Amino acid sequence: MAVEIIRPLLFVGLLFGWNASALSQESHVALLVGISNYDYLDDLQNASRDAHVLAIEFERLGYETKLVTNPSRAEMLRALAELRIRASEASQVVIYIAGHGVQIGAQNYVLLRDARAFEGGWQAGSVSLPTIFKAVSDKPRQKIVFWDACRVPAVLQPATSRHGRNNIPAGSYVAYAAQPGFAAFDGFDGNSPFTAALLEELRSSSGALEEKMRKVRLRVTTETAGQQVPWTQSSLLRLAYLRSDRD
Questions:
Q1: CA nearest 31: which of 107, 74, 92?
Q2: What sequence ranges are listed for the domain Caspase family p20 (predicted)?
């Protein structure tokens, strides 16, 4: 089962890109998104590479896997719509996102390829974390999001804008690469600090997701001298295991 890479503007046949095997109640689905190349913002060296290496790893773990690189906002929304269809019977959905990000109030946004730097421009080229959860919250299932993007406040946010609490649906888990209000480093050795630590845990340890993320937090905090501290948010109803740890 090969990992399929979706490039920008190449969405012909997208709805048929997943493995054609039927998904059962015990199936696991993963969507990996990396945005390295931007039309109007500074490019990132490692984001697409991070998504690619994790797509290979989640495929090894037995997930029905899709990799999307450098999507525009429209392409990202289409990928989420496809995910909703393909994961309709899945018991667990994993979404990984790497790219530029901002935080407004309590809400987090990932900036897609067509995001602009001028006032209001980033909003037209971004997708919020609640939007991502909405795509996979139509049925009871575990929803796990790995958010390898900055959480720094947007400088040009409208003064009158309102952004509610950062609530997540029941049965959800978010692993942020950084603490609220801080940057997530892109890295210099092929992967970001967060993705490198996550990859190491996926390859070398077993156990519940919460324990894996505690180890990720320790490694990233140590390697960045405390400048980046991975953060988690959970509304899980039972322990979460990645597939190889459950089998």
A1: 92
A2: 26-151
176 vs 213: CA distance, rounded Å: 10
Please write the tens of the pLDDT for every residue from 39-59.
999 999 999 999 999 999 999
Among the listed residues 66, 63, 88, 53, the one whose alpha carbon sits nearest the alpha carbon of residue 16:
66
Query: For 178, which DSSP code?
Result: S
Sign of CA dihedral 145, 149, 153, 159: negative
pTM attached to this predicted model? 0.86
3-state secondary structure of 11: coil
What is the per-residue pLDDT for 1? 38
Cα gap 55→241, rounded to integer Å: 17
Answer for the pair 102, 154: CB distance below 8 angstroms, yes or no. yes
Q: Which residue has the tokens 């990720």?
A: 216
What is the number of other CB atoms lying within 10 angstroms of the CB of residue 88?
13
* Residue 2 binned pLDDT confidence (cut-offs 50, 70, 90): very low
Ordered structural domains, the chain, with CATH: 26-246 (3.40.50.1460)
| Strands 101-104 vs 64-69: parallel, antiparallel or unpaired | unpaired
User: Bridge-partner residues for 143, per DSSP?
Assistant: 93, 172
Q: Is 114 left (phi over 0), alpha (psi -120 to 50) or beta?
A: alpha
